Amino acid sequence: xxxxxxxxxxxxxxxxxxxxxxxxxxxxxxxxxxxxxxxxxxxxxxxxxxxxxxxxxxxxxxxxxxxxxxxxxxxxxxxxxxxxxxxxxxxxxxxxxxxxxxxxxxxxxxxxxxxxxxxxxxxxxxxxxxxxxxxxxxxxxxxxxxxxxxxxxxxxxxxxx
Length: 161
Prior knowledge:
The chain is α+β, with helices and mostly antiparallel strands.
C-alpha cells in the first residue's frame, strides 16, 4: 500500500512540475513581441532566440536573410495545430524543431533551400504531431544539441523587448 501511495505521490509531483513549465512557457510567449530575444533551455542547451509573433513576421521568417539571428528564431502560435513551413527565399539550410507546450514533438533536420522554385513547387515541412511553437536553428544544431522528440523545452526569460 505504501508503494502505491508513494508512486501516486511522485506521479502527482511530476505532473505538477510539467504543468508549471507549460504555463510558464505560455506566459512568456504571450508577453514576447516581434524582435524580442528569449533565453530558452532546449534539450539541456541554453539558446538565445529571435522572436517572431505577428502574421507578417511569421510569413517572412528567415526568408532573404544571409544568416540566422542569434542561435535561432522562435515562432509562437495560439494553439497546437498541424503547422506547415516552407523554405521560400531561404539562403541556407536549417533544422526545424516542432514543440507542443514544453516538449519537442518532432524534428526536421537539414531542410534545404530551393532557389528559383516557384511557390507551388516548394517542399512543405510539417511535424509528426500538432505543435504550438517552432524553432528554426542552423542545420546540424539538432544533432549538436541532441534535440529529439521528447526533449524538454523551457523559456527562461525575455532578454529584451
